[in-house]
Amino acid sequence: MKFERLALIGCGLMGGSFALALRQAGLVQHITGFSASEKTRQRALELGVIDQACNSVTEAVQGADLVLLAVPVGAMHSSFAALRDTLSPKALLMDVGSTKCDVIAAAQAALGERLNCLVPAHPIAGKEVAGIEHAEGTLYQDRRTILTPLPQNSIRHIQTASEVWTAIGSHVSHMTPEAHDATFAAVSHLPHLLTFAAVNALTAQPQGAAFLEMAGPGFRDFSRIAASDASVWRDILSANRSEVLTQMAHFRAALDQFENTLKQGDTAALQQLIQQASDVRSAWTLQAGNACNKASED
Amino acid sequence: MKFERLALIGCGLMGGSFALALRQAGLVQHITGFSASEKTRQRALELGVIDQACNSVTEAVQGADLVLLAVPVGAMHSSFAALRDTLSPKALLMDVGSTKCDVIAAAQAALGERLNCLVPAHPIAGKEVAGIEHAEGTLYQDRRTILTPLPQNSIRHIQTASEVWTAIGSHVSHMTPEAHDATFAAVSHLPHLLTFAAVNALTAQPQGAAFLEMAGPGFRDFSRIAASDASVWRDILSANRSEVLTQMAHFRAALDQFENTLKQGDTAALQQLIQQASDVRSAWTLQAGNACNKASED
Protein backbone atom coordinates (compact mmCIF):
# COMPACT_ATOMS: atom_id res chain seq x y z
CA MET A 1 0.00 0.00 0.00
CA LYS A 2 1.46 3.29 -1.14
CA PHE A 3 -0.26 6.47 -2.22
CA GLU A 4 0.84 8.76 -4.99
CA ARG A 5 -1.00 11.80 -3.83
CA LEU A 6 -2.63 12.65 -0.51
CA ALA A 7 -4.99 15.62 -0.47
CA LEU A 8 -5.36 17.15 2.94
CA ILE A 9 -8.54 19.21 3.29
CA GLY A 10 -8.08 21.11 6.54
CA CYS A 11 -4.53 21.67 7.75
CA GLY A 12 -4.98 21.58 11.52
CA LEU A 13 -3.75 19.32 14.30
CA MET A 14 -5.59 16.22 13.11
CA GLY A 15 -4.95 16.58 9.39
CA GLY A 16 -1.38 17.76 9.82
CA SER A 17 -0.55 14.86 12.12
CA PHE A 18 -2.04 12.40 9.64
CA ALA A 19 0.08 13.85 6.82
CA LEU A 20 3.25 13.73 8.92
CA ALA A 21 2.54 10.15 10.02
CA LEU A 22 1.96 8.99 6.44
CA ARG A 23 5.10 10.68 5.23
CA GLN A 24 7.19 9.28 8.09
CA ALA A 25 5.88 5.79 7.31
CA GLY A 26 6.92 6.28 3.68
CA LEU A 27 3.37 5.73 2.49
CA VAL A 28 2.92 8.80 0.31
CA GLN A 29 4.82 10.51 -2.50
CA HIS A 30 3.19 13.91 -2.69
CA ILE A 31 0.90 15.85 -0.34
CA THR A 32 -1.36 18.68 -1.42
CA GLY A 33 -3.13 20.77 1.17
CA PHE A 34 -6.07 23.12 1.33
CA SER A 35 -7.18 25.17 4.28
CA ALA A 36 -9.83 27.87 4.37
CA SER A 37 -7.17 30.10 5.94
CA GLU A 38 -4.39 31.02 3.52
CA LYS A 39 -2.09 31.65 6.46
CA THR A 40 -2.64 28.13 7.73
CA ARG A 41 -1.90 26.47 4.41
CA GLN A 42 1.26 28.55 3.97
CA ARG A 43 2.36 27.54 7.47
CA ALA A 44 1.67 23.86 6.68
CA LEU A 45 3.90 24.27 3.63
CA GLU A 46 6.67 25.96 5.63
CA LEU A 47 6.56 23.22 8.25
CA GLY A 48 6.90 20.58 5.55
CA VAL A 49 3.57 19.02 6.40
CA ILE A 50 2.37 19.47 2.83
CA ASP A 51 4.33 19.73 -0.44
CA GLN A 52 1.90 22.03 -2.18
CA ALA A 53 -0.56 24.60 -0.85
CA CYS A 54 -3.69 24.77 -2.98
CA ASN A 55 -6.16 27.60 -3.42
CA SER A 56 -9.23 25.41 -3.57
CA VAL A 57 -10.54 21.99 -2.57
CA THR A 58 -10.78 21.13 -6.25
CA GLU A 59 -7.15 21.92 -6.92
CA ALA A 60 -6.01 19.90 -3.88
CA VAL A 61 -8.12 16.84 -4.71
CA GLN A 62 -7.16 16.73 -8.41
CA GLY A 63 -5.36 13.43 -9.05
CA ALA A 64 -5.37 12.36 -5.39
CA ASP A 65 -5.73 8.67 -4.58
CA LEU A 66 -6.18 9.46 -0.88
CA VAL A 67 -8.19 12.39 0.54
CA LEU A 68 -8.43 13.22 4.24
CA LEU A 69 -11.18 15.60 5.26
CA ALA A 70 -10.05 17.11 8.55
CA VAL A 71 -12.38 20.09 8.85
CA PRO A 72 -14.83 21.06 11.61
CA VAL A 73 -18.03 19.05 11.52
CA GLY A 74 -19.89 22.18 10.38
CA ALA A 75 -17.74 22.41 7.23
CA MET A 76 -18.24 18.81 6.09
CA HIS A 77 -21.17 19.36 3.76
CA SER A 78 -19.58 22.17 1.78
CA SER A 79 -16.31 20.24 1.54
CA PHE A 80 -18.07 17.16 0.17
CA ALA A 81 -19.88 19.35 -2.35
CA ALA A 82 -16.63 21.03 -3.38
CA LEU A 83 -14.71 17.82 -4.02
CA ARG A 84 -17.50 15.74 -5.56
CA ASP A 85 -16.82 16.52 -9.21
CA THR A 86 -13.04 16.24 -9.01
CA LEU A 87 -12.65 13.17 -6.81
CA SER A 88 -11.33 10.15 -8.64
CA PRO A 89 -13.75 7.18 -8.47
CA LYS A 90 -10.89 5.05 -7.19
CA ALA A 91 -9.78 7.48 -4.47
CA LEU A 92 -10.18 6.63 -0.80
CA LEU A 93 -11.86 9.47 1.09
CA MET A 94 -11.91 9.61 4.90
CA ASP A 95 -12.98 12.13 7.49
CA VAL A 96 -11.86 12.36 11.14
CA GLY A 97 -15.09 13.61 12.73
CA SER A 98 -16.05 12.79 16.32
CA THR A 99 -19.61 12.02 15.25
CA LYS A 100 -20.51 9.81 12.32
CA CYS A 101 -24.24 9.82 11.48
CA ASP A 102 -24.21 13.53 10.69
CA VAL A 103 -21.07 13.27 8.53
CA ILE A 104 -22.64 10.41 6.62
CA ALA A 105 -25.87 12.38 6.16
CA ALA A 106 -23.85 15.29 4.77
CA ALA A 107 -22.02 12.91 2.44
CA GLN A 108 -25.29 11.33 1.26
CA ALA A 109 -26.61 14.79 0.49
CA ALA A 110 -23.49 16.17 -1.18
CA LEU A 111 -21.23 13.40 -2.53
CA GLY A 112 -23.55 11.90 -5.14
CA GLU A 113 -21.93 9.00 -7.02
CA ARG A 114 -18.75 9.36 -5.02
CA LEU A 115 -20.41 8.28 -1.75
CA ASN A 116 -18.78 4.86 -2.17
CA CYS A 117 -15.34 6.50 -1.83
CA LEU A 118 -16.00 7.62 1.75
CA VAL A 119 -14.94 5.35 4.62
CA PRO A 120 -15.93 7.41 7.68
CA ALA A 121 -13.25 7.38 10.39
CA HIS A 122 -12.93 8.61 13.95
CA PRO A 123 -9.44 8.48 15.41
CA ILE A 124 -9.73 8.77 19.21
CA ALA A 125 -6.86 11.18 19.52
CA GLY A 126 -6.26 14.82 20.16
CA LYS A 127 -4.47 17.32 22.30
CA GLU A 128 -5.48 20.17 24.53
CA VAL A 129 -3.85 22.49 22.01
CA ALA A 130 -5.05 22.81 18.42
CA GLY A 131 -3.49 23.93 15.15
CA ILE A 132 -0.89 22.89 12.62
CA GLU A 133 1.96 24.03 14.90
CA HIS A 134 1.17 21.14 17.24
CA ALA A 135 0.83 18.45 14.57
CA GLU A 136 3.06 15.44 15.07
CA GLY A 137 3.50 12.17 13.28
CA THR A 138 2.98 10.13 16.45
CA LEU A 139 -0.46 11.52 17.32
CA TYR A 140 -2.30 8.38 16.25
CA GLN A 141 0.15 5.87 17.69
CA ASP A 142 -1.40 3.47 20.19
CA ARG A 143 -4.76 5.18 19.82
CA ARG A 144 -7.97 3.60 18.69
CA THR A 145 -9.46 4.54 15.32
CA ILE A 146 -13.05 3.61 14.61
CA LEU A 147 -14.24 3.03 11.06
CA THR A 148 -17.95 3.07 10.28
CA PRO A 149 -18.03 1.68 6.71
CA LEU A 150 -20.96 2.31 4.40
CA PRO A 151 -22.92 -0.33 2.48
CA GLN A 152 -21.66 1.40 -0.67
CA ASN A 153 -17.97 0.85 0.21
CA SER A 154 -15.98 -1.76 -1.66
CA ILE A 155 -14.12 -4.37 0.38
CA ARG A 156 -10.92 -2.96 -1.07
CA HIS A 157 -11.66 0.56 0.18
CA ILE A 158 -12.50 -0.66 3.68
CA GLN A 159 -9.38 -2.82 3.72
CA THR A 160 -7.17 0.05 2.59
CA ALA A 161 -8.65 2.42 5.16
CA SER A 162 -7.92 -0.10 7.89
CA GLU A 163 -4.35 -0.58 6.63
CA VAL A 164 -3.62 3.16 6.56
CA TRP A 165 -4.53 3.69 10.21
CA THR A 166 -2.79 0.49 11.27
CA ALA A 167 0.35 1.58 9.42
CA ILE A 168 0.54 4.77 11.46
CA GLY A 169 0.20 2.88 14.73
CA SER A 170 -3.51 3.06 15.38
CA HIS A 171 -5.74 0.19 16.58
CA VAL A 172 -8.66 -0.13 14.18
CA SER A 173 -12.21 -1.10 15.20
CA HIS A 174 -15.33 -1.26 13.05
CA MET A 175 -18.75 -0.11 14.23
CA THR A 176 -22.00 0.96 12.66
CA PRO A 177 -22.40 4.75 12.60
CA GLU A 178 -25.37 4.45 14.96
CA ALA A 179 -23.46 2.33 17.48
CA HIS A 180 -20.52 4.74 17.25
CA ASP A 181 -22.63 7.77 18.01
CA ALA A 182 -24.53 6.04 20.83
CA THR A 183 -21.28 4.79 22.37
CA PHE A 184 -19.51 8.13 22.32
CA ALA A 185 -22.57 9.98 23.53
CA ALA A 186 -22.41 7.67 26.55
CA VAL A 187 -18.70 7.62 27.34
CA SER A 188 -17.52 10.98 26.02
CA HIS A 189 -20.16 13.50 24.97
CA LEU A 190 -22.37 13.28 28.06
CA PRO A 191 -19.41 13.25 30.48
CA HIS A 192 -18.14 16.43 28.82
CA LEU A 193 -21.57 18.03 29.13
CA LEU A 194 -21.82 17.00 32.80
CA THR A 195 -18.52 18.64 33.64
CA PHE A 196 -19.46 21.80 31.72
CA ALA A 197 -22.68 21.94 33.75
CA ALA A 198 -20.87 21.17 37.03
CA VAL A 199 -18.42 24.04 36.50
CA ASN A 200 -21.21 26.43 35.47
CA ALA A 201 -23.20 25.41 38.57
CA LEU A 202 -20.25 26.47 40.72
CA THR A 203 -19.73 29.75 38.86
CA ALA A 204 -23.41 30.61 39.19
CA GLN A 205 -23.06 30.78 42.99
CA PRO A 206 -21.73 33.89 44.76
CA GLN A 207 -19.28 31.71 46.69
CA GLY A 208 -18.23 29.84 43.54
CA ALA A 209 -14.72 31.28 43.40
CA ALA A 210 -14.14 30.54 47.11
CA PHE A 211 -15.40 26.99 46.62
CA LEU A 212 -13.05 26.45 43.68
CA GLU A 213 -10.06 27.56 45.74
CA MET A 214 -10.56 24.60 48.05
CA ALA A 215 -11.03 22.03 45.32
CA GLY A 216 -8.57 19.16 45.37
CA PRO A 217 -7.22 16.46 43.06
CA GLY A 218 -10.55 14.65 42.82
CA PHE A 219 -12.14 17.76 41.32
CA ARG A 220 -9.08 18.36 39.16
CA ASP A 221 -9.41 15.00 37.41
CA PHE A 222 -13.20 15.03 37.32
CA SER A 223 -13.31 18.42 35.63
CA ARG A 224 -10.28 18.23 33.33
CA ILE A 225 -12.44 17.74 30.23
CA ALA A 226 -14.46 20.86 31.08
CA ALA A 227 -11.51 22.89 29.72
CA SER A 228 -12.19 21.59 26.19
CA ASP A 229 -12.64 23.82 23.16
CA ALA A 230 -16.07 25.43 23.05
CA SER A 231 -16.62 25.48 19.28
CA VAL A 232 -15.46 21.88 18.86
CA TRP A 233 -17.86 20.73 21.57
CA ARG A 234 -20.71 22.90 20.36
CA ASP A 235 -20.43 21.02 17.06
CA ILE A 236 -20.10 17.57 18.62
CA LEU A 237 -23.01 18.01 21.02
CA SER A 238 -25.19 19.55 18.32
CA ALA A 239 -24.33 16.90 15.74
CA ASN A 240 -25.04 14.06 18.17
CA ARG A 241 -27.90 15.81 19.91
CA SER A 242 -30.39 12.96 19.85
CA GLU A 243 -28.00 10.41 21.39
CA VAL A 244 -26.72 12.95 23.90
CA LEU A 245 -30.29 13.68 25.01
CA THR A 246 -30.95 9.95 25.33
CA GLN A 247 -27.87 9.56 27.55
CA MET A 248 -28.90 12.60 29.55
CA ALA A 249 -32.24 10.94 30.26
CA HIS A 250 -30.45 7.81 31.53
CA PHE A 251 -28.23 10.00 33.68
CA ARG A 252 -31.16 11.91 35.11
CA ALA A 253 -32.83 8.64 36.08
CA ALA A 254 -29.67 7.55 37.92
CA LEU A 255 -29.36 10.97 39.55
CA ASP A 256 -33.01 10.81 40.67
CA GLN A 257 -32.28 7.53 42.44
CA PHE A 258 -29.52 9.20 44.44
CA GLU A 259 -31.67 12.20 45.22
CA ASN A 260 -34.55 10.01 46.38
CA THR A 261 -32.44 7.85 48.69
CA LEU A 262 -30.81 10.98 50.13
CA LYS A 263 -34.15 12.68 50.72
CA GLN A 264 -35.60 9.53 52.25
CA GLY A 265 -32.51 8.98 54.39
CA ASP A 266 -32.32 5.43 53.04
CA THR A 267 -28.64 4.84 53.76
CA ALA A 268 -28.74 1.14 52.84
CA ALA A 269 -30.07 1.94 49.37
CA LEU A 270 -27.57 4.79 49.07
CA GLN A 271 -24.68 2.50 49.90
CA GLN A 272 -25.92 -0.03 47.36
CA LEU A 273 -26.07 2.60 44.61
CA ILE A 274 -22.54 3.75 45.40
CA GLN A 275 -21.25 0.18 45.68
CA GLN A 276 -22.62 -0.62 42.25
CA ALA A 277 -20.80 2.35 40.70
CA SER A 278 -17.63 1.70 42.66
CA ASP A 279 -17.51 -1.98 41.65
CA VAL A 280 -18.00 -1.16 37.96
CA ARG A 281 -15.43 1.63 37.95
CA SER A 282 -12.88 -0.35 39.98
CA ALA A 283 -13.13 -3.27 37.55
CA TRP A 284 -12.86 -1.00 34.49
CA THR A 285 -9.52 -0.41 32.82
CA LEU A 286 -8.58 1.60 29.78
CA GLN A 287 -8.48 -0.77 26.78
CA ALA A 288 -5.30 -1.00 24.74
CA GLY A 289 -5.78 1.38 21.88
CA ASN A 290 -7.86 3.82 23.91
CA ALA A 291 -4.85 4.93 25.93
CA CYS A 292 -2.96 8.10 25.32
CA ASN A 293 -0.40 10.16 27.13
CA LYS A 294 -1.85 13.48 26.28
CA ALA A 295 -5.27 14.74 27.11
CA SER A 296 -7.70 13.69 24.44
CA GLU A 297 -10.51 15.89 23.25
CA ASP A 298 -12.55 12.72 22.93
CA MET B 1 4.97 21.56 71.69
CA LYS B 2 5.41 17.95 72.71
CA PHE B 3 2.82 15.44 73.84
CA GLU B 4 3.28 12.83 76.53
CA ARG B 5 0.53 10.56 75.43
CA LEU B 6 -1.42 10.34 72.18
CA ALA B 7 -4.58 8.25 72.22
CA LEU B 8 -5.54 7.00 68.81
CA ILE B 9 -9.22 6.03 68.57
CA GLY B 10 -9.52 4.15 65.29
CA CYS B 11 -6.35 2.56 63.91
CA GLY B 12 -6.90 2.84 60.16
CA LEU B 13 -5.15 4.70 57.36
CA MET B 14 -5.89 8.17 58.65
CA GLY B 15 -5.24 7.55 62.35
CA GLY B 16 -2.23 5.32 61.75
CA SER B 17 -0.65 7.88 59.44
CA PHE B 18 -1.18 10.63 62.02
CA ALA B 19 0.50 8.53 64.73
CA LEU B 20 3.46 7.71 62.48
CA ALA B 21 3.85 11.34 61.46
CA LEU B 22 3.81 12.55 65.07
CA ARG B 23 6.30 9.93 66.11
CA GLN B 24 8.62 10.70 63.19
CA ALA B 25 8.48 14.39 64.07
CA GLY B 26 9.48 13.53 67.63
CA LEU B 27 6.33 15.12 68.99
CA VAL B 28 5.02 12.30 71.16
CA GLN B 29 6.40 10.01 73.84
CA HIS B 30 3.80 7.26 74.08
CA ILE B 31 0.94 6.20 71.82
CA THR B 32 -2.04 4.17 72.98
CA GLY B 33 -4.49 2.81 70.45
CA PHE B 34 -8.02 1.50 70.39
CA SER B 35 -9.82 -0.04 67.45
CA ALA B 36 -13.19 -1.79 67.46
CA SER B 37 -11.42 -4.68 65.74
CA GLU B 38 -8.97 -6.48 68.03
CA LYS B 39 -7.09 -7.75 65.00
CA THR B 40 -6.57 -4.20 63.79
CA ARG B 41 -5.22 -2.90 67.08
CA GLN B 42 -2.84 -5.87 67.36
CA ARG B 43 -1.65 -5.18 63.82
CA ALA B 44 -1.11 -1.50 64.69
CA LEU B 45 1.01 -2.66 67.64
CA GLU B 46 3.03 -5.08 65.49
CA LEU B 47 3.66 -2.37 62.91
CA GLY B 48 4.93 -0.03 65.61
CA VAL B 49 2.21 2.52 64.93
CA ILE B 50 1.08 2.38 68.57
CA ASP B 51 2.97 1.44 71.72
CA GLN B 52 0.03 -0.04 73.57
CA ALA B 53 -3.15 -1.70 72.32
CA CYS B 54 -6.10 -0.92 74.57
CA ASN B 55 -9.32 -2.86 75.09
CA SER B 56 -11.53 0.19 75.39
CA VAL B 57 -11.75 3.85 74.48
CA THR B 58 -11.58 4.68 78.20
CA GLU B 59 -8.33 2.77 78.67
CA ALA B 60 -6.75 4.41 75.62
CA VAL B 61 -7.76 7.94 76.59
CA GLN B 62 -6.66 7.67 80.24
CA GLY B 63 -3.91 10.22 80.83
CA ALA B 64 -3.75 11.34 77.18
CA ASP B 65 -2.96 14.98 76.44
CA LEU B 66 -3.79 14.47 72.72
CA VAL B 67 -6.65 12.36 71.37
CA LEU B 68 -7.30 11.73 67.67
CA LEU B 69 -10.68 10.34 66.77
CA ALA B 70 -10.21 8.62 63.40
CA VAL B 71 -13.36 6.53 63.18
CA PRO B 72 -16.11 6.44 60.53
CA VAL B 73 -18.52 9.35 60.78
CA GLY B 74 -21.21 6.93 61.97
CA ALA B 75 -19.13 5.95 65.03
CA MET B 76 -18.41 9.51 66.21
CA HIS B 77 -21.29 9.84 68.65
CA SER B 78 -20.58 6.61 70.54
CA SER B 79 -16.86 7.43 70.64
CA PHE B 80 -17.53 10.88 72.12
CA ALA B 81 -19.82 9.30 74.71
CA ALA B 82 -17.22 6.66 75.56
CA LEU B 83 -14.36 9.11 76.16
CA ARG B 84 -16.28 11.92 77.83
CA ASP B 85 -15.76 10.85 81.44
CA THR B 86 -12.09 9.96 81.08
CA LEU B 87 -10.85 12.81 78.90
CA SER B 88 -8.57 15.24 80.72
CA PRO B 89 -9.96 18.81 80.69
CA LYS B 90 -6.61 19.97 79.27
CA ALA B 91 -6.43 17.40 76.50
CA LEU B 92 -6.70 18.41 72.85
CA LEU B 93 -9.26 16.28 71.01
CA MET B 94 -9.50 16.26 67.20
CA ASP B 95 -11.40 14.23 64.63
CA VAL B 96 -10.56 13.77 60.93
CA GLY B 97 -14.07 13.62 59.49
CA SER B 98 -14.89 14.79 55.94
CA THR B 99 -17.98 16.61 57.17
CA LYS B 100 -18.03 18.92 60.15
CA CYS B 101 -21.53 20.07 61.16
CA ASP B 102 -22.64 16.52 61.92
CA VAL B 103 -19.49 15.74 63.93
CA ILE B 104 -20.01 18.89 65.95
CA ALA B 105 -23.67 18.01 66.51
CA ALA B 106 -22.61 14.58 67.79
CA ALA B 107 -20.02 16.23 70.08
CA GLN B 108 -22.58 18.70 71.39
CA ALA B 109 -24.89 15.82 72.21
CA ALA B 110 -22.31 13.49 73.74
CA LEU B 111 -19.24 15.39 75.00
CA GLY B 112 -20.86 17.46 77.72
CA GLU B 113 -18.35 19.65 79.56
CA ARG B 114 -15.52 18.37 77.41
CA LEU B 115 -16.89 20.01 74.25
CA ASN B 116 -14.25 22.72 74.60
CA CYS B 117 -11.51 20.11 74.10
CA LEU B 118 -12.63 19.36 70.53
CA VAL B 119 -11.03 21.24 67.65
CA PRO B 120 -12.75 19.67 64.60
CA ALA B 121 -10.31 18.92 61.77
CA HIS B 122 -10.52 17.73 58.20
CA PRO B 123 -7.22 16.79 56.59
CA ILE B 124 -7.75 16.68 52.81
CA ALA B 125 -5.78 13.52 52.35
CA GLY B 126 -6.39 9.88 51.67
CA LYS B 127 -5.56 6.99 49.43
CA GLU B 128 -7.49 4.66 47.22
CA VAL B 129 -6.54 1.87 49.65
CA ALA B 130 -7.65 1.85 53.27
CA GLY B 131 -6.36 0.23 56.46
CA ILE B 132 -3.47 0.38 58.88
CA GLU B 133 -1.20 -1.55 56.47
CA HIS B 134 -1.16 1.50 54.19
CA ALA B 135 -0.55 4.08 56.90
CA GLU B 136 2.48 6.28 56.33
CA GLY B 137 4.00 9.21 58.13
CA THR B 138 4.01 11.36 55.00
CA LEU B 139 0.28 11.13 54.27
CA TYR B 140 -0.44 14.68 55.45
CA GLN B 141 2.61 16.34 53.94
CA ASP B 142 1.77 19.15 51.52
CA ARG B 143 -1.94 18.57 52.01
CA ARG B 144 -4.45 21.03 53.29
CA THR B 145 -6.02 20.55 56.71
CA ILE B 146 -9.11 22.54 57.58
CA LEU B 147 -9.90 23.37 61.19
CA THR B 148 -13.42 24.47 62.13
CA PRO B 149 -12.90 25.74 65.71
CA LEU B 150 -15.79 25.98 68.17
CA PRO B 151 -16.75 29.07 70.18
CA GLN B 152 -15.97 26.96 73.27
CA ASN B 153 -12.34 26.35 72.23
CA SER B 154 -9.56 28.17 74.04
CA ILE B 155 -7.06 30.11 71.95
CA ARG B 156 -4.41 27.73 73.24
CA HIS B 157 -6.27 24.66 72.00
CA ILE B 158 -6.80 26.15 68.55
CA GLN B 159 -3.17 27.23 68.40
CA THR B 160 -1.92 23.79 69.40
CA ALA B 161 -4.18 22.07 66.87
CA SER B 162 -2.80 24.30 64.15
CA GLU B 163 0.78 23.61 65.23
CA VAL B 164 0.31 19.84 65.25
CA TRP B 165 -0.86 19.71 61.63
CA THR B 166 1.75 22.21 60.51
CA ALA B 167 4.47 20.16 62.23
CA ILE B 168 3.58 17.11 60.14
CA GLY B 169 3.70 19.10 56.90
CA SER B 170 0.10 20.10 56.40
CA HIS B 171 -1.17 23.55 55.33
CA VAL B 172 -3.77 24.70 57.85
CA SER B 173 -6.87 26.76 56.99
CA HIS B 174 -9.69 27.83 59.26
CA MET B 175 -13.34 27.84 58.22
CA THR B 176 -16.69 27.80 59.91
CA PRO B 177 -18.25 24.32 59.97
CA GLU B 178 -21.06 25.58 57.74
CA ALA B 179 -18.70 27.05 55.14
CA HIS B 180 -16.66 23.85 55.24
CA ASP B 181 -19.64 21.64 54.55
CA ALA B 182 -21.00 23.92 51.82
CA THR B 183 -17.59 24.11 50.13
CA PHE B 184 -16.95 20.39 50.11
CA ALA B 185 -20.50 19.60 49.03
CA ALA B 186 -19.74 21.78 45.99
CA VAL B 187 -16.23 20.67 45.05
CA SER B 188 -16.12 17.11 46.34
CA HIS B 189 -19.35 15.53 47.50
CA LEU B 190 -21.52 16.46 44.51
CA PRO B 191 -18.79 15.57 41.96
CA HIS B 192 -18.51 12.15 43.60
CA LEU B 193 -22.28 11.70 43.44
CA LEU B 194 -22.35 12.79 39.77
CA THR B 195 -19.76 10.19 38.80
CA PHE B 196 -21.57 7.47 40.78
CA ALA B 197 -24.75 8.37 38.88
CA ALA B 198 -22.93 8.54 35.53
CA VAL B 199 -21.47 5.06 35.98
CA ASN B 200 -24.82 3.65 37.13
CA ALA B 201 -26.53 5.26 34.13
CA LEU B 202 -24.14 3.34 31.86
CA THR B 203 -24.58 0.07 33.73
CA ALA B 204 -28.37 0.39 33.56
CA GLN B 205 -28.25 0.15 29.75
CA PRO B 206 -28.05 -3.23 27.96
CA GLN B 207 -25.09 -1.91 25.91
CA GLY B 208 -23.39 -0.49 29.00
CA ALA B 209 -20.50 -2.94 29.01
CA ALA B 210 -19.88 -2.41 25.29
CA PHE B 211 -19.94 1.36 25.80
CA LEU B 212 -17.42 1.13 28.62
CA GLU B 213 -15.01 -0.85 26.47
CA MET B 214 -14.67 2.12 24.14
CA ALA B 215 -14.19 4.71 26.87
CA GLY B 216 -10.98 6.67 26.69
CA PRO B 217 -8.75 8.79 28.91
CA GLY B 218 -11.34 11.55 29.29
CA PHE B 219 -13.74 9.09 30.87
CA ARG B 220 -10.94 7.55 32.92
CA ASP B 221 -10.13 10.85 34.65
CA PHE B 222 -13.73 12.00 34.90
CA SER B 223 -14.84 8.79 36.60
CA ARG B 224 -11.82 8.00 38.78
CA ILE B 225 -13.56 9.13 41.95
CA ALA B 226 -16.50 6.80 41.21
CA ALA B 227 -14.27 3.94 42.44
CA SER B 228 -14.36 5.35 45.99
CA ASP B 229 -15.36 3.34 49.05
CA ALA B 230 -19.12 2.90 49.30
CA SER B 231 -19.50 2.96 53.10
CA VAL B 232 -17.26 6.03 53.45
CA TRP B 233 -19.30 7.89 50.85
CA ARG B 234 -22.63 6.70 52.17
CA ASP B 235 -21.64 8.38 55.45
CA ILE B 236 -20.31 11.57 53.87
CA LEU B 237 -23.31 12.09 51.58
CA SER B 238 -25.74 11.27 54.38
CA ALA B 239 -24.01 13.50 56.91
CA ASN B 240 -23.88 16.43 54.49
CA ARG B 241 -27.22 15.69 52.88
CA SER B 242 -28.68 19.17 53.03
CA GLU B 243 -25.68 20.88 51.39
CA VAL B 244 -25.38 18.09 48.83
CA LEU B 245 -29.03 18.52 47.87
CA THR B 246 -28.49 22.27 47.56
CA GLN B 247 -25.55 21.70 45.22
CA MET B 248 -27.56 19.15 43.28
CA ALA B 249 -30.24 21.77 42.68
CA HIS B 250 -27.61 24.20 41.34
CA PHE B 251 -26.28 21.45 39.10
CA ARG B 252 -29.72 20.55 37.80
CA ALA B 253 -30.33 24.19 36.88
CA ALA B 254 -27.07 24.25 34.91
CA LEU B 255 -27.91 20.91 33.28
CA ASP B 256 -31.35 22.20 32.31
CA GLN B 257 -29.71 25.12 30.49
CA PHE B 258 -27.70 22.68 28.38
CA GLU B 259 -30.71 20.50 27.72
CA ASN B 260 -32.80 23.49 26.65
CA THR B 261 -30.22 24.89 24.25
CA LEU B 262 -29.71 21.42 22.76
CA LYS B 263 -33.43 20.85 22.32
CA GLN B 264 -33.90 24.30 20.81
CA GLY B 265 -30.87 23.84 18.56
CA ASP B 266 -29.53 27.15 19.86
CA THR B 267 -25.89 26.58 18.99
CA ALA B 268 -24.79 30.11 19.89
CA ALA B 269 -26.15 29.76 23.43
CA LEU B 270 -24.67 26.26 23.65
CA GLN B 271 -21.23 27.55 22.68
CA GLN B 272 -21.53 30.33 25.25
CA LEU B 273 -22.37 27.86 28.02
CA ILE B 274 -19.42 25.66 27.11
CA GLN B 275 -17.09 28.65 26.74
CA GLN B 276 -17.99 29.84 30.23
CA ALA B 277 -17.14 26.44 31.74
CA SER B 278 -14.00 26.06 29.64
CA ASP B 279 -12.71 29.51 30.62
CA VAL B 280 -13.26 28.88 34.33
CA ARG B 281 -11.70 25.43 34.27
CA SER B 282 -8.75 26.54 32.11
CA ALA B 283 -7.97 29.35 34.55
CA TRP B 284 -8.28 27.10 37.61
CA THR B 285 -5.24 25.49 39.16
CA LEU B 286 -4.85 23.26 42.17
CA GLN B 287 -3.91 25.46 45.14
CA ALA B 288 -0.73 24.70 47.09
CA GLY B 289 -1.83 22.56 49.97
CA ASN B 290 -4.63 20.91 48.04
CA ALA B 291 -2.19 18.98 45.89
CA CYS B 292 -1.31 15.38 46.42
CA ASN B 293 0.41 12.66 44.47
CA LYS B 294 -1.96 9.93 45.41
CA ALA B 295 -5.64 9.81 44.74
CA SER B 296 -7.53 11.52 47.51
CA GLU B 297 -10.87 10.32 48.76
CA ASP B 298 -11.79 13.93 49.14
Automatic annotation (TrEMBL), chains A, B:
Keywords: Oxidoreductase
Key word Cell inner membrane present: no
All copies of domain Prephenate/arogenate dehydrogenase, residue ranges: 4-292
A GO biological process held by the record: tyrosine biosynthetic process
PROSITE patterns, per the entry: PDH_ADH
GO function terms (MF aspect): NAD+ binding; prephenate dehydrogenase (NAD+) activity; prephenate dehydrogenase (NADP+) activity
Coiled-coil annotated spans: none
The keyword Metal-binding is assigned to this record: no
PANTHER family: PREPHENATE DEHYDROGENASE, PREPHENATE DEHYDROGENASE [NADP(+)]
Protein name: Prephenate dehydrogenase
Species of provenance: Limnohabitans parvus II-B4
